[in-house]
Amino acid sequence: MGGESGGNRRRFIVDHNVGKLARWLRMLGYDSVFVAGQDDSQMVRQALEEGRVILTRDTGIMKRRQVKNGRLKAVLLESEEPERQMRQLMNTFDLKENARPFTLCLECNRSLAPRTREEVADRVPPYVYRTQTQYVECPACHRIYWRGTHWKAMMTRLERQLDAGEKQ
Ligand SMILES: [Zn+2]
Question: Looking at the structure, do residues 72 and 129 belong to the same domain, yes or no?
Answer without folding.
Answer: no
